[in-house]
């Protein structure tokens, strides 16, 4: 089997070892860089330990938190007192640790989390890979949601024949879900 080496997108040398995948406004942009170009790249500021070949999860999360804070730059003073009603975790604790206390924290801090996530991904909805063990269920739920929205639009525009077809498709998928 022949080994294929990627070329650096910046300098053109063979042996690009850093693969960067960005999602900007819903579009996936892939870049390959050699280690020298990656060290010089200003956009990779949060990858300080690139020279060691190790990037800690803490560094990545801190970079994400910094970015979210930057996007929400002038967050109102009430954020200081913002607390999850389920576990008592505060938004300030999230900013310090990069972790949330429970699943309800997402709802409690949504107004501060969503803009940063939306800016990074180009969407509020997950658009990346879906793990195989839960993939079928997630894809089915997405399809049901899409068809429900389509059905509503068709009924609103009084396209009843098309709406009936979509309704039947939706019914089949909902039966599969149950």
Structure description:
- 49% of the residues lie in helices and 8% in strands.
- The protein is mainly alpha-helical and 178 residues long.
- It folds into three domains: 1-55, Wheat Germ Agglutinin (Isolectin 2), domain 1 (2-Layer Sandwich); 56-128, no CATH class; 132-177.
- A two-stranded antiparallel sheet has the order 1-2.
- A hairpin with a 2-residue loop joins strand 1 and strand 2.
- Helix 2 crosses helix 5 (110-121).
- Mean pLDDT is 75; it is low at 46-52.
- One of its GO terms (molecular function) is copper ion binding.
- Give the rounded overall mean pLDDT: 75
Question: How much helix, percentage-wise, in residues?
Answer: 40-55%
Radius of gyration: 22 Å
Number of strands: 2
Question: What share of the residues does DSSP label as strand, in percent?
Answer: 5-15%
Count of discrete alpha- or pi-helical segments spanning 4 or more residues: 7
Strand order of the largest sheet: 1-2
Write a concise synopsis of the structure shown.
The protein has about 180 residues and is mainly α. About 50% of the residues lie in helices and about 10% in strands. The termini are far apart.
């Amino acid at each position: 089997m022949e080994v294929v080496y990627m070329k650096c997108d910046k300098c053109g040398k063979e042996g690009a070892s850093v693969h960067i995948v960005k999602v900007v406004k819903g579009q996936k942009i892939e870049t390959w860089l050699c280690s020298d170009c990656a060290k010089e790249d200003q956009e990779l500021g949060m990858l300080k330990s690139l020279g060691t070949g190790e990037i800690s999860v803490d560094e990545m999360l801190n970079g994400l938190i910094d970015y979210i804070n930057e996007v929400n730059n002038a967050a109102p003073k009430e954020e200081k007192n913002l607390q999850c009603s389920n576990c008592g975790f505060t938004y300030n604790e999230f900013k310090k640790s990069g972790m949330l206390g429970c699943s309800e924290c997402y709802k409690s801090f949504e107004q501060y989390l969503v803009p940063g996530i939306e800016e990074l991904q180009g969407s509020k909805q997950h658009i990346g890979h879906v793990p195989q063990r839960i993939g079928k269920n997630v894809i089915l739920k997405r399809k049901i949601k899409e068809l429900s929205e389509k059905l509503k639009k068709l009924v609103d525009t009084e396209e009843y024949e098309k709406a009936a077809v979509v309704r039947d498709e939706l019914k089949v998928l909902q039966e599969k879900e149950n």
